[in-house]
Specification:
The chain is mostly helical. 65% of the residues lie in helices and 5% in strands. Among the domains are: 219-459, Alpha Horseshoe (Serine Threonine Protein Phosphatase 5, Tetratricopeptide repeat); 486-654, no CATH class. The strands form three sheets. The chain has a three-stranded antiparallel β-sheet with strand order 3-4-5. A hairpin with a 2-residue loop joins β3 and β4. α3 (62-73) runs parallel beside α5 (105-122).
């Protein structure tokens, strides 16, 4: 007698949800559905639906093939980023469509998925919106819910905010008809994303509601996006170290969920953090890899814009110009209006400013102007660079329209305050001060710098009681060493840091002197060496009259060359992870190169000092004092530290102790 519970292994039965099919196939379909819909485990879902499709195809079960193909697509549009992966998904959908009744609800769902995939890659929404209307008229809740979510994902550009909100609200309502928990979560998630993209002051209320639903029962995929939003909010609050830790945890969560964005979002979050830390130069190797990563969406250009900024900041103008030219293509307006478009425009504006590219800056201004009321938020609210008014102000500053730049940057400060994006507030105030100086409004610029100093002081952590438990004594013998300043070139300005504080000031001769001193702490450097190095690097002006004193004697030249050789070996061995050590080594390397260039001619003969010792002392002292005044006006704490630690005279030095 046959066992009635045994799997059916004979000829396939015509498809349908109630048809008898092999037990293994049905189990895989059920497990895949639970993984994606209930658990948000996209990796497990893809695995189950992949295996189910192969079995269904060999059995000729059209209904199971269709369900497996839909499940293989996942929750989001464009989950399959590689060419092979996206072609495989679409070929399976088309094959299932050939076998199904064209008028069936399942066929409609397949056509919706196919339209969503195509529209997303084209940065379009025409096809999927047309099928959404058909789904509404057909009265199939699942088809409507899937069309609503996919259409929303295809409308993530800045011009579709109002329509997105309507679709998200409709999806929440539809979720009570489908009874699928994932539809409710996706509806709430899209509402939250929309509010952040629009700069809605109540966005965090919506996020709190979504967190409450997830607290009842977790969902890996949606929870991953929520974690990414927490990283963005930590950056806004200025808690950059915490944001970096959260980003690492978020990546682990995304990897566990099998989300293709796990590593891409981590890179975007790291760019945001390093941007506001003034350390974007460290990201050149990472961004060079990310721009060519097959996991990067076909409509995502933010990494190339960030690479242009990082490269020019690092002094690699050729790489920066190439990246910017690649982005601009025939016309910058051809870039897809994807979820990363706003932050891409921000990066392009910054790169154009650093490269003095007025034509690109003018085009950015034209394209971004309609969206000046929006924050520059990337993807599903996983990164934020503050108000678009900032990028408009930077673009106007680049084109020389300083009065318009002042207006935009004042608006940027106001909007960033409303967003509670404190690093962006500082960045906008910094550029506002520069714009005011260029406009000849020095008193207003000083007032802005004073606001920055007060804000930085308020944000600084409370000092540790030196006599308290575990603290240092009056001479600091038990405590940690005082923080050492850092000085990083950012195109036409410098980022000066101290502990968790940083300030950006315009380029000047005094800042060059300070950069050399800070890069060589506790070392005395003759003022004549500093002046000679600058003269060698200058390509303008007439050759000064030479005195009879060599710039560097033979012994000093030999020692410089030996140290330079050791530094080159160190730089070859250090990796991108050794950010601080590499930056210090590179700074010393560049200074030594400048010194040797100033000390020897093309034939290798010793050059002579263009200035006497006393004239060099006076010139360096004045230039450094002016630079310190600018730093102190922007950040009193950093300024006071440098005033006490930097010593000028015939021999100059920086003693952070």
């Amino acid at each position: 007698m046959d066992n009635v519970d045994a799997p059916v292994r004979d000829a396939p039965v015509p498809g349908g949800p109630g048809a008898r099919r092999p037990a293994e196939l049905q189990a895989l379909l059920d497990e895949g559905t639970r993984a994606v819909v209930d658990d948000g485990d996209l990796r497990a879902g893809r695995d189950r639906f992949e295996r189910a499709y192969r079995i269904a195809e060999s059995a000729g079960d059209a209904w199971a093939m269709a369900v497996a193909a839909l499940g293989f697509g996942g929750l989001w549009a464009h989950e399959h980023r590689t060419v092979a992966g996206s072609v495989l998904l679409e070929s399976r959908i088309r094959r299932a469509l050939e076998l199904l009744d064209a008028g069936s609800s399942l066929a409609l769902r397949l056509r919706i998925r196919l339209a969503g995939e195509g529209d997303y890659r084209r940065s379009d929404q025409t096809a999927v919106l047309a099928l959404l209307e058909e789904a509404r008229s057909r009265g199939n809740p699942m088809a409507r819910a899937e069309a609503l979510s996919l259409a929303h994902h295809c409308l993530i550009g800045p011009e579709h905010g109002a329509l997105r909100r309507e679709l998200a609200a409709e999806l929440v309502a539809e979720s009570f008809r489908t009874s699928r928990r994932s539809d409710l979560l996706m509806g709430l998630l899209w509402q939250t994303v929309d509010m952040f993209l629009d700069g809605d002051p109540h966005a965090e209320r919506c996020l709190a509601e979504l967190r409450g639903v997830l607290a009842e029962e977790d969902h890996l995929a949606v929870g991953f996006v929520v974690n990414a939003m927490h990283v963005m909010l930590a950056v806004r609050a200025g808690r950059l170290d915490e944001a970096e830790e959260l980003a690492r945890a978020c990546t682990e969560r995304g990897t566990a969920a099998g989300d293709v964005n796990a590593t891409v979002w981590q890179a975007a979050q790291l760019v945001t953090i390093r941007w506001y830390q003034g350390r974007v130069v460290e990201l050149v190797p990472l961004l060079s890899e990310v721009v060519n990563s097959p996991t990067l969406s076909a409509v995502d250009d933010h990494a190339l814009a960030a690479l242009a900024v990082a490269a020019v900041t690092a002094g690699d103008r050729r790489k920066a110009v190439s990246a910017l030219a690649t982005l601009c293509g025939r016309d910058l307006g051809d870039l897809p209006r994807s979820s990363s478009w706003m932050v891409t425009m921000h990066g392009v504006a910054e790169a154009a400013y650093l490269l003095d590219d007025t034509a690109t800056a003018a085009r950015v201004y034209e394209l971004l102007s309609p969206y000046g009321h929006l924050p520059m938020v990337g993807s599903l609210a996983v990164a934020c660079f503050g108000s678009a008014q900032h990028a408009l102000g930077v673009a106007a500053l680049t084109t020389g329209d300083v009065d318009r730049a002042v207006t935009h940057l004042r608006d940027a400060v106001r909007q960033n305050l409303a967003l509670a994006h404190w690093p962006a507030v500082t960045a906008s105030r910094d550029r506002l001060a520069i714009a005011l100086v260029r406009a000849g409004r020095h008193a207003e610029a000083d007032a802005v710098r004073q606001e920055m100093a007060v804000a930085a002081e308020e944000a600084a952590p409370a000092p540790v009681d030196s006599d308290g438990p575990g603290g240092a004594g009056p001479h600091g013998e038990q405590g940690a060493r005082p923080p050492t300043a850092s000085c990083t070139r950012l195109g036409r300005s410098w980022r000066v840091g101290l502990g968790g504080r940083s300030v950006q000031v315009e380029h000047s001769v005094g800042m060059l002197h300070l950069a050399v001193l800070i890069a060589n702490p506790r070392q005395e450097i003759p003022a004549v060496d500093l002046v000679a190095g600058l003269t060698a690097l200058s390509e303008a002006g007439e050759r000064p009259a030479l005195s009879g004193q060599p710039v560097l004697d033979r012994v000093a030249t030999q020692e410089y060359r030996k140290r330079l050789a050791r530094l080159r070996t160190e730089l070859d061995e250090l990796t991108s992870a050794d950010g601080h050590e590499r930056a210090a080594a590179q700074a010393e390397h560049d200074w030594l190169v400048g010194q040797l260039a100033g000390a020897t001619g093309l034939s290798g003969r010793a050059r002579r000092f263009p200035e006497g010792e006393e004239r060099s002392r006076v010139a360096v002292s004045k230039a450094v004092r002016r630079a310190l005044d600018r730093i102190a006006a922007a950040d009193r704490v950093i300024g006071e530290h440098l005033r006490h630690a930097v010593h000028t005279g015939l021999r100059c030095s920086y003693w952070p102790d």
